[in-house]
Amino acid sequence: MAKQRFRDVKQGRIQAPAEKKKRKGTEESAHRPATLRERFKAFITDSFMILMPLMYLVFYLVFGGREGFAQHKLLGWILILVPYIFISALFIARSGRTPGMRAYELRVVLCHSGENPSFAVALLRQLLAVWDFFLFTWILQFFRKDHRTLHEILSGTCLIHDPVPPRSAH
Length: 170
Description:
Number of domains: 1
Strand order of the largest sheet: 1-2
Shape: elongated
Helix content: 55-70%
Number of strands: 2
Distance between the termini: 44 Å
């Protein structure tokens, strides 16, 4: 077999060796379940892009500073988490991705159909995701082949790796 030139592979004249080995029906490999590392990176990104601005607004505009927040912690966290859950649910219902999920090419889909969840399902998923802060739900994904967590099982959703399609230049 002749040596393949990179230029020919790059320009699509011949297939790369890795592409030749793929069998028909393996297109689904692009939609593999999200790993714990990918989930964590997306969560951290969402925390900085969505949660931190909400925390700033609640800390300084609603309570007038950290001291005011410290006196009303329960109300403060409710005022932070409720909008966060709604904003995340809106992103998921609209495109299947939050900004963090988009950055790491993850997408929430309905497991039975592969479509984006409705707002009600996305809201249920995000409400149940509060339980992810407890250890037993993170452990659950290590024992499942599809890496689904408790809130995904209960809401019927899956978090998959799905490359972001390029945006059209309109």
